[in-house]
Structures are given as C-alpha cells and as structure tokens.
Write a structure and sequence with these properties.
The complex is a heterodimer of chains A (522) and B (441). With 522 residues, chain A is an alpha+beta fold. In chain A, 15% of the residues lie in helices and 36% in strands. In chain A, a hairpin with an 8-residue loop joins β14 and β15. In chain A, α4 packs across α6. The longest helix of chain A is centred in the middle third of the chain and has 15 residues. Chain A is globular, with a radius of gyration of 25 Å. The two termini of chain A are 35 Å apart. The N terminus of chain A is likely disordered. Chain B is elongated and about 115 Å long. The longest helix of chain B has 23 residues. Chain B has 4 helices and 29 strands. In chain B, the strands form 7 sheets. In chain B, strands 11, 13, 15, 17, 19, 23, 24, 27 and 28 form a 9-stranded mixed sheet that branches. In chain B, strands 14-16-12-10-18 form a 5-stranded mixed sheet. In chain B, β5 and β6 form a beta hairpin. The chains are: A alpha+beta (522), B mainly beta (441). At the A-B interface, α1, α2, β12, β19 and β20 of A face α1, α2, β1, β4 and β5 of B. β26 of chain A pairs antiparallel with β5 of chain B.
C-alpha cells in the first residue's frame, strides 16, 4: 500500500475556502465559478506550472554506494538529470536530500497530467547499466513465499488533476508532500512534492515585481512594487494586483483595476524576507513566484537578493562591485545600480521575464576589479565560479570584456542592452551573429551559428524559416581557424547582433537552457 | 417595510450576498489555487546548508595557444557551474586513476576574450595570447587527472594530476563527507622465519610479517605498506624497500603482510638488519590524521658463520657413523683452508677452533644448539686428510672426536654437521661445515 503523507502546506486554496463556508447559502453563487471555469478563453489561455520536487531519497540494499539521479516525465516531457551538477554532490550516498525540481508548464485545459518518476542508480555511462530503485510498494517481496516475484513496476506513476490539484495512482491525495517505499532489494524510500502553481507569465500578460533597497538590513523598510504589463511589456491594468510578503495565507495588500501596487514592509528579524507579486486579469492569474531576499550577509561570499530556488534548477547571476566605484554588497549605490540592471536588463526583456521564477540574483559581499580589454581582460573577482554568470559592475567608461577562461564579464552600470548580450554568451552560450570579429562557434545543441550552410538550411524550418533566410559570412580567426559561418537570425534587431530583440534561434536556445534548468540540470 | 419584513429579506439576501462575496473575493475555478499559498517559499539558508557540493578549480596561464601552464589546482567548497551553455571551444575530461572517464564537459577557451572595440562600442573577439583562465570541474573523490583539449586544434593543452589537491583538501577537511578518515596503524613487525645462522658468502632468507590495522573511524581504506630494510655493517639485504598494497582494510581488522628478504653475510660475526614498516592511505581523499602509529620497526640479529670444510672420519670412505658403542669416538677434521679452497669464501685456520664449543650431529640438531660435544674437550692439531682421503697438505688441521649417538642422527641422515666457535685476533666467531655420512644404526 502506498504510504501517503498529505501536504504540510495548505491544500488547494479555493477548496479550502469553500470548505469553510456553509454550503446551503452559497449553493447558487457557487455555480458562478464553474461558469468561469467553463469559459474557453480563460481556461485555454492559462498554463499552469506543474512541479515535481524530489526532496529526499533513501536507498536500501544496493551493492555499492548508489549514485542516484531522477528520470521524470511530466505530461510526456522527460527530464533526466543523470551526471549533472545537480547529481554530482550526491554520488556514493545512500540518503540524499537533493531537492531536485522538475517543472513543466501545462495548459489547464488539459485537465489531467500523467506523471512518471524513477530513481535510478548510475552504474556507468551506458543507460542500460543503471539500476532502477524500486519506489513502488506494490511489488516483489522476497520474504513472502506467495509472491510471484514479478516486480516489474518499480516506478511511481500517477495522474495529476490540474483543477483539483490531486493525484491518483501510485500516489493519491492532495498536492503536497508524499512518501513511498519500494520493496527489497535495491529499493528506495522517496519523499517528493507535487505542486500545481500559477505561471510567472501568461499569453498577453506579464507581471514585474521588485523591491528596494536591494539588500536591506533587519529594521529597514523595504518598498515592493508590482507592475502589471501586457505582452509587449507596456503597463496594463490588472483586475487584481496582490503583493504577498512572508505569509502564504493571504496577500499583504491588493488592489483592483490598477497598473501598479506598492507595499512597504519592515524587516523585523529572521535575516531574510520573502515576497511575490500576483496579478489576475480576465480570470487568468500569474504569479512571480516566491523570492527570498537576504537581510544579513551570512557566511557565504554572495548574498541572494532575489532567490527563487535551488541553484541546480535556476539560472544564477552574481554581481560584483568594482572596488573603484563601490564598497561591496552593503553599498547603497551598488544596490541601486544592480537593481536597475536587474530591472532593465532582465525584467524588462521578455525572454527573461517570462522565466523570472527560474532566475536568481546575488551580490558579492566583497568587491572585485574590472580589467579593461586593452589591459588583458584579467578581471579580479572573489570566487563565484559556481554561478552561471558573474558581472563586474563599474561606473567608469572603458572597454568592457568577458574573460575567455571564466564566467566573468564586466559591464557599465547603465549598459543594460550590453549586459543582455553578454548574458546571451554567458550563460546561454549563444554565439555572435554579426560580421565580423565576433565570437563564433556552433553549439552542439540548438545553435544560432553554423559551421556549414547546409546545417543552417536544415535547421531553418525548425525556426520557422527557409534555407533562403540563411546568410553567410567569412571570418578568419588569426591563429585559430578559417571558417565560413552561416546564420538565419536577421542581421539587425537581434540580441547577438546589436543587443536588441532575441530572435528565433536566440529564443530557442534560451528556452532550452531554462528548460534544462527546470529539469534540475543546471 | 416592517422590521420582520426587513429581517426576512435579509435572511433571503444573506446567502446570495455571501456567495457573491465569496465568488468575487475568491479565485475563480480557472484559478485552480490561490497560488502563493501552495508554492513553497525558497529557503536559501537551508538550500545552502544542504548543498555540500565541491569543485576542483584548475587555473592556467597561457603564453600562446599551445603553451599552457597550470598555475594552481584547488578543491573549493562550492559547486561547479553547470557548463550547460558553454561553447565547444575546450573539452575537459576528468579521469580516474585507471584512466576511466569520470566526467566531461565543454567550456570556453581562456584565450577567447570578447571585448568592446571602444568604450560602449561594438564587441569584438580577440585571442589573448597571454590569457589566464580556469576550468572548474565537479568534485569527485576518485578524480585523478584532468585533461583539456583545444577542440578546434584537436590538441591536448593541459594534463594535470588532481590527487594532491584532493588530498590537501581532505587533510584540511577530514570530516567532509567525501573524505575518509582512517587511522591506519602498524601493530607489529616481526621476523617470522630466519635461519639460526648465516654463512659468509651465502644468501639467507628472512621472512618478516607486518600487521596493519585500521583504527577508524572510517573504512574500509586502501593502504600502502612500505617496508625498508637497513643492514648493519658486515651484511647486505635485498631489496632495500618493499611496497605492498593492502586493499580495503575495514575498521578494526588486522591485515598481515608477509615478505621475504634476502640477507647475505659479508663478514663473520653478529650483524643486524632493521626492518621498518610504514603504512599510509593510498586514496587521495583518504587521510590518516594519527601519524604516530604509522611506523614500527624490528631489528634482527644474524650470526654470520664462516663456512668450513669438514672431513668426517678422515682417511676413510664411506664415513660410516655408528650410533652405537662403536661410534663413541668418531673423528672428524676441520680443515685449514685458503680463501677459495673447496669453495670457501674466507681462509680458515683450523687451529683457532675452540674445541669445547664444537657440536657435531644432524644439521637441524646442531643449528638448534644440540649435538655431540668434543669427547676430549680439546683439539688435536695435525695434518689430516683432505677430502680425497689420500692427500695431507702441509697445514695443520683440527681433529675432533664426538660421540655419534649424541648427534641426534636418524637412520636416513646423509650428512653430519659441525658448528662451533673460533677465535682470531678480530674476535670470536662461529664456524659451520658439513660432510657426508652413512648412518649405521
């Protein structure tokens, strides 16, 4: 029998509210939401984020210390975090608490979603060498003489009802935390979380939300501002705007029919605070996702100022203040400048904003030193090698550059579009698309620049283009190679040409990168 | 409207009002949950505390594309970056001890510098011939080597050993979950087998047993046992060092390693050989923080005897030894020989034999301290027969007599041996020699 522990958090919100109200007096009015649900426009437009989080795995009876990883399918999309940074720290360990998150956006109109989960023990580089840990209690029991030893079902399969936020199958109950233990041998006990949450963006509507000061201290009052936007990121009125702070039971402030909403929150203790902004328009809700903000420096070299979750499932940017201009994370001017960078470079750029729940931003506690390109581009920064991208922020004007041998680049505090372009390189790995003297290479996965025109032509249909959209240029890289390069993204108004709009090949790779992160692979 | 009417109206309107209020205030069904109530609040402190990831940072300095120098290798207490978006410019392979591939990823090339042509201007790529850079690989306790390939040039540009960095990290962080603390100890070093004497110019085999244990707290641990043999003057020992691998010593387990050593006596007398065994962990991520019990020694003394030529029952052949009354005064001659005569390495003057120390009999018996004593307690110096039983050379030999029955002979014995002391100006030493016999019960 499957052991189920129901969610520690509140179950589905509106059901709880309904449950608290006498049924008879509201019988008629209770039908109204059903009518709204039946609205094709609202239901069809809404994508929900389905998230499966593997919180804990305890192995049993493996011959050697296991190297666990997860294989998850959500609505047919598979995630496999074998041999990734997310699994490396947990090798050779029987009991792990990895918090591997796997998420996918699924249309609410699809009603139910099949979810499949395996925990595997990596035995080698070949898939068929790996063992599957038995998670399903309805299986083989070697101690039971009546058992027919036909335990072929070692995985967990269940169906998630998006509306009710309940699961049935190998697990059953309301969304939240579940546990299950398989039968010996080579089995595991697993604790996982299943959630259905509102997306950070929906077709035609966006929400942007920031706080100031960026790195407040205990006792400070923080101003949180929510902005509701349309798909072009221009201000739009939301039917409802809400700001939630720390408390998940109710918003701290809400308003109707507004463009923005502001809330002041005083940090009274705890070393951090958390908030999120939610907007509802035409019955379509979007939520930034909870972010946590440090209010003390802590032990690390970096402080999270917008932390959305595990670094293995997020894209993490670290900002370092140039010692010529800033004194470190506590410097108000540094906080203000970085806030502007986040706001303008990331939250005002739709390919990034729609993934705001998958991005985290950090400040280096100390300072670094940006080294101009003409001096050799040898930036000096405290160790933040773990981050997806590190930016040394400076005020003076000089030739900025990205070090070849690291994830570090320098940028002026107001060069917002340049910062976006550099983020295209690091972390997303996009090559330059302008001619000439750019950084050219063909990525193995979802390239935006091609070694051969045939590759560009072959890929063009996948980008909604034809082979005739491919343009070529020749670039001789001194002491390196001579290459003819092909590109199908346009020659202007492009992220990797003139720091402008992310075009199809750019978007595809950015989307792939975020998807990989959402699969606990970054 | 009367009060009652108002009350009735209110009663009918109440459920509708509550319902409408509920519908307005609560999310519509298309809003399947009041989402912030469900989504967990990210907890960076807890996430950070749970993340015990480490990485190996290899720093390099380039002086041209094919000239890379590793300047530093460190294990750091933070995770490696994902490398998910890194371009195929350099390829990094992390290999295990046997060359097995532990991990691989692409990364940027340190020489690739992307910089502005002018402040605030367009970007250009430059190949910086004097670049510095780093590669950061996820930590693996079994990592041994990192190999970096310049993909475009298909050249290996870096190959570096990672084991020292891993070991240094574990020495500094022995409680890290990827490090193993094993207090290995040499519990005993013992000579378990050795001949009672050595013969000058001859090899002797000595067996040394070493007991190693793991006092924990972690295990099993692979160990390397290195034993050195140090010979005193007058003796040589080979080999000088032996190394053994002791795999997987569990906590509390005793593992015995037994080795044989060849000792050759160069000069007569009591000489020493000291065997010193030292145990150490072999895996770079294993550390032994208690060094005081890692080494132990034993010193073995070997009596190096001078080989001599013995003619049993000189002048006759076969050398019948009667174990009965007929053998109560069996003669034998210790021959005076020159170096090389009869294959003896040293010259020997039989007149130096101390007769009272001489013992004759079965080899094992006399080497064990038994055997028959010289029946007259004196040496008879005379020109005795050489081994051809016909020749008597000019030098004086020592003729001794023994009661054969005291020699511990058995019927099948075919040799009789003599051991004893002799004295020369350099001191008193042992001599030893054997000759053929035919035992007559």
């Amino acid at each position: 029998m499957t052991k189920v522990v129901y969610a520690a958090e509140p179950a589905v919100g509106w059901r709880r509210r309904l449950g608290a109200i006498p049924v008879v007096p509201v019988l008629v009015s209770a039908l109204l939401p059903v009518l709204v649900l039946s609205s094709p426009a609202a239901a069809a437009d809404l994508n929900m984020t389905v998230r499966v989080t593997v919180e804990r795995v305890e192995g049993h009876d493996f011959g050697e210390d296991p190297d666990f990883y997860s294989y998850v399918e959500i609505a047919g999309e598979s995630f496999n975090n074998e041999d990734t940074p997310a699994t490396d720290p947990f090798e050779d360990t029987y009991t792990i608490e990895p918090n591997w998150e796997f998420s996918k956006q699924v249309a609410l109109s699809s009603g139910t979603v099949p979810i499949y989960l395996e925990i595997r023990d990596e035995d080698g580089f070949l898939r068929f060498d790996d063992d599957i840990a038995d998670l399903d209690p309805d299986g083989d029991d070697p101690d039971d003489p009546s058992d027919n030893d036909d335990d072929t079902d070692q995985s967990l399969s269940f169906t998630l009802d998006l509306n009710a936020c309940t699961v049935t199958g190998d697990l059953s109950g309301g969304c939240g935390v579940f546990t299950s233990t398989g039968t010996p041998d080579e089995s595991a006990s697993i604790r996982l979380r299943v959630e259905v949450t509102e997306p950070p963006a929906a077709p035609g509507i966006r929400i942007r939300c920031m706080h100031t000061p960026l790195f407040p201290q205990v006792g400070d009052t923080v101003t949180i501002t929510a902005e509701f936007l349309d798909g072009a990121l221009t201000p739009a009125r939301a039917d409802t705007l809400e700001i939630w702070v720390n408390d998940r039971t109710t918003p701290d402030v809400s308003t109707a029919n507004s463009l923005t909403l502001t809330y002041n929150h005083t940090i009274t203790g705890g070393g951090s605070f958390s908030y999120g902004c939610r907007g509802v328009d035409d019955s379509v809700p979007i939520f930034t996702g909870w972010r946590s903000v440090a209010a003390t420096a802590g032990d690390g070299d970096e402080v999270p100022v917008l932390y959305t979750g595990s670094t293995y499932s997020r894209v993490d940017w670290v900002f370092v203040g140039d010692s010529d201009d800033y004194s470190g994370a506590a410097d108000p001017q540094f906080q203000s400048d970085v806030q502007q960078i986040i706001y303008n470079s990331f939250y005002s750029y739709d390919p990034f904003l729609v993934h705001q729940d998958a991005m985290s931003f950090w400040l280096q506690v100390g300072t670094g030193q940006a080294d101009p390109a003409e001096d050799g581009c040898d930036h000096v920064v405290p160790d933040s090698g773990w981050a997806d991208s590190v930016m040394v922020v400076h005020v003076d004007s000089f030739r900025d550059c990205a070090m070849g041998g690291s994830n570090v680049f320098s940028g002026e505090n107001t060069s917002f579009s340049t910062i976006r372009h550099e983020s295209g390189h690091r972390p997303f790995g996009l090559a330059d698309e302008y001619c000439c003297d750019g950084g050219y290479y063909q990525q193995d996965v979802y390239p935006n620049v091609y070694d051969e025109p045939e590759d560009c032509a072959d890929d063009a249909p996948d980008l909604g283009r034809t082979a005739s959209d491919c343009r070529e240029f020749e670039e001789e890289i001194e002491n390196w190679d001579d290459f003819d390069w092909s590109v199908s993204d346009p020659a202007t108004n492009d992220l990797m040409v003139d720091n402008a709009t992310a075009q199809a090949a750019d978007i595809r790779r950015i989307e792939w990168y975020f998807a990989e992160c959402r699969g606990a692979k970054c | 409207m009367t009060t009652n009417s108002r009350r009735r109206l209110a009663w009918w309107l109440l459920p509708v009002a509550v319902g409408v209020a509920l519908w307005v205030g609560a999310p519509a069904l298309s809003d399947p949950a009041n989402d912030p109530t469900i989504q967990p609040i990210p907890n960076f402190a807890a996430d950070n505390a749970a993340d015990e990831a480490k990485s190996i940072v290899v720093r390099v300095s380039f002086n041209g594309r094919a000239d890379a120098t590793v300047t530093d290798i460190q294990v750091v207490d933070e995770r490696a970056p994902s490398h998910l978006g890194a371009p195929p410019l350099s390829k990094v392979d992390v290999l295990g001890e046997t060359g097995d591939l532990i991990g691989t990823f692409n990364d940027w090339h340190p020489m690739w510098e992307l910089g502005e042509e002018a402040p605030g201007g367009g970007e250009t790529r430059r190949l910086n011939p004097h670049a510095s850079g780093r590669w950061i690989a996820p930590f693996d306790r079994d990592a041994a080597t990192i190999v970096v390939t310049d993909i475009a040039a298909a050249d290996e540009i870096v190959r570096a050993d990672l084991t020292d960095a891993i070991h240094d990290f574990c020495l500094a962080h022995p409680d890290d979950e990827d490090c193993l603390r094993a207090d290995l100890a040499v519990e005993a070093v013992t000579v378990t087998a050795a001949p009672p004497i050595g013969l000058v110019g001859k090899d002797a085999t000595i067996t040394v047993g070493t007991v190693v244990t793991n006092n924990g707290p972690d295990g099993p641990a692979d160990a390397a046992l290195t034993t050195t043999a140090t010979a005193g003057s007058g003796v040589t020992v080979t080999p000088a060092t032996r190394t053994a691998t002791l795999p997987g010593i569990a906590v509390g387990a005793d593992v015995t390693e037994s080795d044989q050593w060849t000792v050759r006596c160069d000069t007569p007398g009591q000489h020493t050989v000291t065997f010193t065994a030292t145990v150490a962990t072999t895996h770079p991520a294993d550390v032994d923080l208690v060094a005081t019990n890692n080494t132990r020694s034993t010193t073995h003394t070997i009596d190096c005897a001078v080989p001599v030529t013995v003619n049993i029952k000189p002048g006759g052949d076969p050398n019948s030894i009667n174990l009965g009354a007929g053998g109560n005064n069996a003669p034998l001659a210790v021959l005076t020989t020159t170096a090389g005569e009869y294959g003896n390495p040293l010259a020997f003057d039989a007149r130096t034999v101390v007769a009272t120390t001489a013992r004759f009999g079965n080899r094992a018996v006399v080497l064990g301290g038994g055997g028959g004593a010289e029946t007259h307690n004196r040496r008879h110096d005379e020109r005795s027969y050489e081994l051809d039983e016909r020749t008597r050379d000019a030098d004086l030999d020592a003729v001794l007599h023994f009661r054969a029955g005291d020699g511990g002979f058995t019927a099948g014995d075919t040799e009789g041996c003599l051991i004893g002391k002799f004295t020369d100006p350099a001191g008193t030493f042992t001599f030893f020699g054997c000759g053929p016999v035919r035992i007559v019960p």
